[in-house]
Amino acid sequence: QVQLVESGGRLVQAGDSLRLSCAASGRTFSGYTMGWFRQTPEKEREFVAAISWSGGTPYYADSVKGRFTISRDNAKNLVYLQMNSLKPEDTAVYYCAASWVSSPSAAYEYNSWGQGTQVTVSS
Question: Which of 80, 73, 91 is nearest to 49 (CA)?
Answer without folding.
Answer: 80
